[in-house]
């Protein structure tokens, strides 16, 4: 058998059990259990010792034999991996026990990433290996708080994997540091909260885990719980002393963004319905949760028209195309013609985006169809430019000025022609749009369509409407001059 071959090579040919090369003893691993393909996948420049080969293949008898011939149980020939790392990864319990029984094993050996065998066992869900290592932690002088290059301890690893059983085992060990911070300043409590693991959160709190630690994003465990809408964990953290006095509104904003109504109610009650900052309502709008928005505006009406980045909440809700939120804000007193930093109204936003249903709601609430922004654009300019035929029709039906001019003296027809919107050009002309109006450069809509070489169907429309073809722009060009100049 394979054991006899190894024994023969060791005893009769003086083979070194720790040699790292392609000698007669290494191919024995190739022979074991038809695992040639596995061996080849592990052949990395022949940098593994016979012991690690045997460990990788799960052959306890060969491991025993090699150890009896003084194989180095702690050899780290490749990537700083020991035989214990290998068996921890693959879950070879018998071999792990054999290695431990040598009484020479360094259980704290680290690979090139700083990870111990315990890290490996946790990462690869080898619970039996974890239990074995924990059982012999004193014999091995195992450092249960050893951290890898990212400063993650075994407990961090268990919680990153959301492995409750391992986490419980570690937390219940008095020597395990439950407040260790990794390289992004996260303690185990952050990770337990991230996975919504209520049982582990409770266990960590019983070990006096730090509650108000800020991670690299300036999130405490409480903020993390609020952001993911974990009501029970939020309550648990606050009951155990999480700071709500100075972070309450930020926590509420995160809860609003999560869209969890029950959580928002709880926090509002906890803070005695204190003054709600604008950010909270904005977060709720972004979550598209109408019930949360209703809850918030019920307690503070003035936030409805508050501005962030120049916009009101109504502008943002229109942009999000959420009809229910738009109705809720309007029903609670939002100013329908409020203007942003560019003096654009919510109706302009709806027209530009093509949200015809929302535009209709705003008009029903008496939105001004002829309001102007800082460039004198009206809602009809926006709809014509953007090519939203249904919105153009709606605006014309409620009395939008078809020949309104903006700062460059262009009408909606100018912009529809410039953009090649044949359907809108046709509609505007049918509603008495003046095709002979000239902009600040004395261009008619027909000039602009020719400049953009968008004249196929549009030219016929303008000619049929008896457009004055003698009108000249500032260059002295008639539409015919322009057509000749821009002939492909």
From TrEMBL:
Keyword Repeat: yes
Residue intervals passing through the bilayer: none
Keywords: ANK repeat, Repeat
Cross-referenced InterPro entries: Ankyrin_rpt, Ankyrin_rpt-contain_sf
First and last residues of every ANK repeat: 46-78, 113-145, 184-216, 217-249, 309-341, 342-374, 375-407, 408-440, 441-474
Top-rank taxon, per record: Eukaryota
Tagged with keyword rRNA-binding: no
A Pfam family per the record: Ank
Protein name stated in the entry: Uncharacterized protein
Native organism: Aedes albopictus (Asian tiger mosquito)
């Amino acid at each position: 058998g394979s054991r006899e071959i190894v024994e023969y090579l060791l005893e009769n040919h003086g083979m070194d059990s720790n040699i790292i090369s392609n000698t007669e003893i290494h191919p024995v691993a190739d022979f074991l259990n038809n695992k040639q393909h596995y061996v080849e996948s592990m052949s990395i420049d022949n940098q593994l010792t016979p012991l690690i080969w045997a460990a990788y293949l799960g052959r306890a008898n060969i491991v025993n034999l090699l150890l009896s011939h003084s194989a180095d149980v702690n050899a780290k020939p490749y990537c700083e991996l020991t035989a214990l790392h290998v068996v921890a990864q693959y879950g070879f319990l018998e071999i792990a026990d054999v290695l431990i029984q040598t009484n020479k094993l360094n259980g704290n050996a680290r690979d090139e990433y700083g990870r111990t065998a315990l890290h490996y066992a946790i990462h690869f869900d080898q619970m039996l290996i974890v239990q074995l290592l924990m059982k012999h932690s004193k014999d091995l002088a195992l450092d249960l708080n050893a951290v890898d290059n990212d400063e993650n301890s075994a407990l961090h690893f268990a919680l990153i994997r959301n492995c409750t059983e391992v986490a419980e085992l570690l937390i219940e060990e008095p020597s395990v540091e439950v407040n260790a911070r990794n390289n992004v300043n996260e303690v185990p409590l952050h990770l337990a909260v991230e996975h919504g693991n209520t049982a582990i959160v409770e266990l960590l709190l019983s070990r006096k885990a730090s509650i108000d630690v800020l991670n690299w994003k300036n999130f405490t465990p409480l903020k993390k719980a609020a952001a993911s809408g974990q009501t029970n964990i939020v309550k648990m953290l606050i009951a155990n002393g999480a700071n709500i006095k100075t972070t309450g509104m930020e926590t509420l904003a995160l809860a609003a963004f999560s869209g969890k109504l029950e959580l928002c109610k709880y926090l509002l009650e906890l803070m005695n319905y204190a003054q709600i900052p604008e950010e909270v309502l904005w977060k709720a709008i972004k979550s598209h949760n109408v019930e949360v928005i209703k809850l918030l505006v019920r307690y503070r009406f003035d936030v409805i028209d508050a501005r962030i980045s120049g916009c009101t909440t109504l502008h943002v809700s229109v942009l999000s195309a959420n009809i229910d939120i738009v109705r809720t804000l309007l029903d609670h007193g939002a100013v329908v013609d409020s203007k942003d930093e560019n003096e654009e109204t919510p109706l302009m936003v709806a027209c530009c985006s093509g949200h015809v249903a929302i535009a209709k709601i705003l008009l029903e609430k008496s939105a001004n169809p002829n309001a102007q922004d800082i460039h004198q654009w009206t809602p009809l300019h926006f709809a014509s430019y953007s090519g939203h035929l249904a919105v153009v029709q709606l605006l014309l039906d409620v009395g939008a000025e078809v020949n309104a001019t903006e700062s460059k003296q262009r009408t909606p027809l100018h912009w529809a022609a410039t953009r090649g919107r044949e359907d809108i050009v046709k509609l505007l002309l049918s509603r008495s749009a003046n095709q002979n109006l000239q902009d600040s450069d004395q261009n008619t809509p027909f000039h602009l369509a020719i400049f953009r070489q968008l004249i196929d169907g549009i030219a016929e429309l303008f000619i049929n409407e008896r457009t004055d073809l003698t009108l000249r722009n500032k260059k002295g060009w008639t539409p015919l001059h322009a057509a000749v100049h821009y002939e492909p």
